[in-house]
Amino acid sequence: MNLPKLILVGAGPGDPELFTLKGVKAIKNADVILYDALVDPSLLAYAKPSAETIFVGKQKNVCQFKQEDIHQLIVEKAKEKGTVVRLKGGDPYIFGRGHEEKNYAEAHGISVEIIPGISSFYSVPELQGIPLTRRGINESFIVVTATTKDHSLSKDVIRASKLKSTVVVMMGMHKLSEIVTVFQDENKGNLPVAIIQKGSTIDEKIGLGTIDTIEEVVFREDLKSPAIIIIGEVVQLHHEFKPL
Question: Is 224 one of the annotated active-site residues of the chain?
Answer without folding.
Answer: no
